[in-house]
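REQUEST FORM: STRUCTURE PREDICTION
Request ID: SP-0412
Submitted by: Lab K.M.
Chain count: 1
Length (residues): 536
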Amino acid sequence: MPTLLRRAADVIEGFHPVRFRAGPESTGSVTYALLHRRVGRCGMPRGPGKGPTALLAAVAVPFAVCVLLLPVRGALSHINVALILTLVVVAVAALGYRCAAVLTALSAAGWFVFFFTTPYRSFTYINNADDIITAGLLLVVGLAVSQLARHYTRERAIATTLQRSLLPRVLPDTSAVRAACRYAPAEAEGGGDWFDVIPLPGFRTAPVVGDVVGHGLSSAVTMGRLRTAVLNFSTLDLPPDELLARLDDVVNQMDAEAGAGVGADGPVAARCLYAIYDPVSCSCSMARAGHYPPAIVHPDGRVEILDLPEGPPLGLGGLRFEAAEWRLPEGTQLVLYSDGLIENRQRDVGVGLNVLCEALSGAGIDPEETCETVLERVLPARPVDDAALLIAITRAFPRERIAEWDVPAFPAEVPALRAEVFAKLVEWHLEETAFATELILSELVTNAIRYGAPPVHLRLLRDTKLVMEVSDGSSTSPHLRYATDTDEGGRGIYLVAQFAERWGTRFTPNGKIVWAEQSAPSVPVLPVLVSAARRG
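STATUS: Completed
RESULT:
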């Protein structure tokens, strides 16, 4: 019966899966085209004339159905007629109009008695007790079914609204990728599929796709918690395999909390694929936890499913995740997707992957158009699972905006390095940032020479931000201290934190990188001032 109610609600209400999209091409927000009905507290539609129209329809629709059934009255039993009228009540209840559904049930029972017990006679002239019982059952079942359908519709609307609010409302247009995404809910209920594009320090970007097994409100809530956990872990700038290991601990903790509670829904089953793309080196490191491997579309149009090592689903605990790295030249399309896109009851995973590759091979270079093409060709007509699709086209960081120096392990070399950095700032028309940049450089390079290990390397990246990265071979990380008046040291990182917008540490296989980020004006200030002075 619940399945029948869901199908009836879907068909009558017209709540078919609508593709949600987000990205910079769509004003930076996710568009959720949901059917929206304004319903009052009593369950009647608002607006002048809508309430009386609904009440009139509640009386007229059962009457019309009974009139249509009159020619075949002899071939139908009273039970069959009662079932048909019950579906009419379900249809009205699926629209969310409570009072109209109750009136429809009363009207259906009345017209059933009038037309099919003692046709065209007075209601008081009923000589068959079975007919009275059938009419009563029709009324009771109609009211019960309308109430169940209304509760299901309300629960589905809550789950869908929650899913909508937990998905990202805007995709950042970063220096690393140009991304677009789509979300297609399942035919019956929303699930726990999600996606994200996370900017990282050094103009890197982390595309991520995840999937919580199951449907309904519980899966949407779990999805929101996992997405928040990924956002928090990304601030630590962890490699993909380490981030998935920490996310696995979160899922284990959620399982422990659910097991200790009353009425738990069972263990959480989730999958995730996390990638980090660096536009400076055009390298992309990825790791997956039970998720399908990504697809890439090379600049020449060739499509490939990456042989990414498979990790266990999240929540098993203690198992190892393995990351792999690929070089993705500028213009490569990185395609992340959930299982609902390629897998359904009519085809297996292999067939779905082939269909996906065929759709990608004929797609263009615009991520929005590629998303539409993939959904039209790959998504099942009546999906039983929700699907998430994220396509990111890689960009290469311009070489003329990169400056690098190998730093000798002698503090006496720092003044000469400052002079070279100042000359580069003049070339980039960033003289107004020179004071703060030189101060940050002195502190970070001196710390790397004194407390780190060779080799020491300095790199400047200039885009909408000016990023300074100082790397060395030590894994010891600096930390912020608040020195007192009598302390002789301990103020260096504090000064860096004051002059930089953001700063942090990123660990590498060979040591660490300490970075600091400042604002960099997009319009060169000095040429503008000189031009204005000449005009004056």
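NOTES: The radius of gyration is 32 Å.
Reviewed by: T.R.
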